[in-house]
Structure formats: structure tokens, C-alpha cells
Design goal:
By secondary structure, the protein is α/β, with parallel strands linked by helices. Helix content is 51%, strand content 16%. It has 2 domains: 2-209 and 300-307, Spore Coat Polysaccharide Biosynthesis Protein SpsA, Chain A (Alpha-Beta Complex); 227-297. It has helices at 17-29, 49-59, 74-84, 104-113, 131-147, 164-172, 180-186, 210-224, 228-257, 264-297; strands at residues 3-10, 35-42, 63-68, 89-92, 118-123, 156-163, 191-196, 304-307. The chain has an 8-stranded mixed beta sheet with strand order 7-5-6-4-1-2-3-8, sandwiched between helices. The longest helix has 34 residues, at 264-297. The protein is elongated. The two termini are 23 Å apart. It binds uridine-5'-diphosphate (UDP) and magnesium ion. Uridine-5'-diphosphate binds at residues 9-11, 13, 43, 71, 73-74, 77, 94-96, 98, 201, 206-208.
């Protein structure tokens, strides 16, 4: 009998969890041929999430949990869940029912009958999301797919069912700066994509602000492309050429017309312009350096306070 592990990262989800559990109970009743374990990862919630999880554990021995010492982020939660999982197949799922558990059966059947290692989901639209957020999300996916060799699918959710083999490959990527959407693509394996319309969360509020998404997208670019580093070199060459041409022009001008003192405003503009570009390029370098710095510290991705 196959065992399926469901990993659910939870951060302040006391309101959503009861709904999720009811849904999971229903879905798993319809899959009597498989054994299940539900691994709730409590990512340092400040509400009663942990006691809700413990309450579920009291009534259902398929429930397990890992509870962090503080909030480490969803990526750390996913990693902890993958490490704790013991199933032959492992699914990742949000706590807010935006990932419909009812798809699990179809996903499992696909892995069993077809030659795939993973069934992943993507949403067709971004209904219920601020227009400006959708716009920037679109730009981000276009940009990152242009500058990274790893394919990062637009609209992909983290909701997916994977074989043990693929899960082990992901666990082997123990990097500190985790960008799962890239990691899933990087490890390869055959992935089948299924689409569904965006579903709004059942209760509670989203944990992502526009700013946190912006920084997350930079994380993704830095983690899966070194192309931005070339920008600095390209600017360097461009400005060497421009400077050389300008020197030639100035020498010619001085020889032909002499050199009256003027051009102060234009000089200031150029200084600001070049100074800005230098800072921009230094910033890019700094981003990579800081990631390397964090990576070389070899800190644990998460710290467990209790688990069961
Ligand atoms: N989450 C988490 N740690 C965090 C932020 C979020 O474990 O620091 C979990 C959250 O509880 C939920 C999932 O990640 O199960 C997705 O979060 P959310 O629904 O807020 O994101 P959205 O669907 O709005 O992108
Ligand atoms: Mg959500």
C-alpha cells in the first residue's frame, strides 16, 4: 500500500486549519487504497495554530507536526516538511484551501498510471488579486525566464505531488537561500501540469505584502541567474567607449576653437549619471555577495522547537 505525505506549511492559520482538515478528511476517505500522513509545519505562528494542530492530532493519528522556534518563512517550512516526510509520494499544500485537496486523487492516479515523477499545478488567472500585483508578477516571470536557464513557470503554485525520488533530490539541495519554484525546475524529472482557476483563501489573510513579494522575486533572480552580473561589465565597456569618443571630440574642439570655461551643468549631470550606474552595479554585486555570505555560514534552514 502506498503512503502519501501531505505537507502543509502554516503561519497564523488558526482560522483556516479546521476547514482544511474537514476537506482532507473527505478526500482521504475517497482514497481508501492509500495510507496518509499529514505533516503540519508550524512556522512560528503568533496565534493558536499550534494548539489547533495538536487538537487535530488528538483526534487523528495520521497528523504529525513540526513546530519552529520562530518564523523562518514558507520555503523553510516546505524543506522541513520534505525532510520529515516518510511517504512514497509527497504533496505540498497551502493551509488556506487555495490548493484544492480534491485534486489529489487525480494527481496520484496520474503518477501511478503515466510516466511522470511529479504532477504540479498552475493557476490560469490571478482573479481576486490587485491588478498592479498581477502586472509585476507577469513582468517578473518574463524577466527571470529570459535570464535563467531553469524554467520557472508563470502561475505555478507550490501545490504538487512528487515521487520519493524527486523529493530526495530536492532535499539534497540544501542551500540556504531557497526559491522552490526554481528548485523544482532545476532538479528536472517529468512534470505534468494541471491548471485550475484561482481560488480565494477560505479564511484568514495572505502573508505576502507587495514589498515582501518584490524581495522574494529578487531572491529568485539572484538564486537562479548570474546574468545580472554581466550588466556591470556591459555598462563598464559602454562607458569606456563613450568616454574615449568624448575625449577625441574635446581634443578636436580645443584645437579648433580653443577652450572657454563652460559646461559645468553638463559635467555635473554626467557625474551623477555615471555615479548612479556605478552604485547600481555595486548593488548587484552586493546582492550576490550577501547571498554567498549567508550560504557560507552554513546556518540551519530552520530550528525545530517541538515535533511529534
Ligand atoms: N506561510 C508560511 N510561512 C510564512 C508565510 C506563509 O508557512 O512565513 C504559509 C501560509 O500559512 C500558507 C502558505 O504559506 O499555508 C501560503 O501563504 P499565503 O496563503 O499567505 O500566500 P498566498 O496564497 O497569498 O500567495
Ligand atoms: Mg494563499
Amino acid at each position: 500500500m502506498d503512503k502519501i505525505s501531505l505537507i502543509i506549511p502554516c503561519y497564523n492559520e488558526e482560522q483556516a486549519l479546521p476547514f482544511l482538515y474537514e476537506e482532507l478528511k473527505k478526500v482521504t476517505e475517497g482514497m481508501s487504497g492509500q495510507e496518509f500522513e499529514f505533516i503540519f509545519v508550524n512556522d512560528g505562528s503568533k496565534d493558536k495554530t499550534l494548539s489547533v494542530i495538536k487538537g487535530l492530532k488528538d483526534v487523528d493519528n495520521r497528523v504529525r507536526y513540526v513546530s519552529f522556534s520562530r518564523n523562518f518563512g514558507k520555503e523553510a517550512g516546505i524543506y522541513a516538511g520534505l525532510e520529515a516526510s516518510t511517504g512514497d509520494y509527497v504533496a505540498l499544500m497551502d493551509a488556506d484551501l487555495q490548493d484544492p485537496p480534491s485534486l489529489l486523487k487525480e494527481m496520484y492516479d496520474t503518477l501511478k498510471t503515466e510516466d511522470y515523477d511529479c504532477v504540479a499545478t498552475r493557476r490560469l488567472d490571478r482573479k481576486g488579486e490587485p491588478a498592479i500585483r498581477s502586472f509585476f508578477a507577469k513582468q517578473f516571470y518574463q524577466l527571470i525566464n529570459k535570464i535563467s536557464d531553469t524554467e520557472i513557470v508563470d502561475g505555478a503554485r507550490d501545490f504538487r505531488l512528487m515521487s520519493r525520488q524527486m523529493v530526495n533530490a530536492i532535499i539534497d539541495l540544501s542551500e540556504y537561500n531557497r526559491f522552490s519554484k526554481g528548485i523544482f525546475g532545476w532538479v528536472g524529472f517529468n512534470t505534468k501540469w494541471i491548471s485550475y482557476e484561482n481560488i480565494e483563501r477560505v479564511a484568514g489573510a495572505t502573508k505576502w505584502s507587495f514589498l515582501s513579494l518584490f524581495f522574494y522575486s529578487i531572491e529568485g533572480i539572484i538564486a537562479f541567474s548570474t546574468r545580472p552580473l554581466y550588466i556591470a561589465s556591459a555598462f563598464g565597456i559602454l562607458f569606456c567607449v563613450i568616454a574615449f569618443l568624448m575625449i577625441c571630440v574635446i581634443i578636436m574642439k580645443t584645437l579648433i576653437w580653443g577652450d572657454p570655461v563652460d559646461g559645468y551643468p553638463s559635467t555635473i549631470c554626467i557625474i551623477f549619471f555615471i555615479g548612479g550606474i556605478q552604485l547600481f552595479c555595486l548593488g548587484i554585486l552586493g546582492q550576490y555577495l550577501s547571498k554567498t555570505y549567508l550560504e557560507t555560514k552554513r546556518r540551519p534552514i530552520y530550528i525545530v522547537k517541538e515535533k511529534a
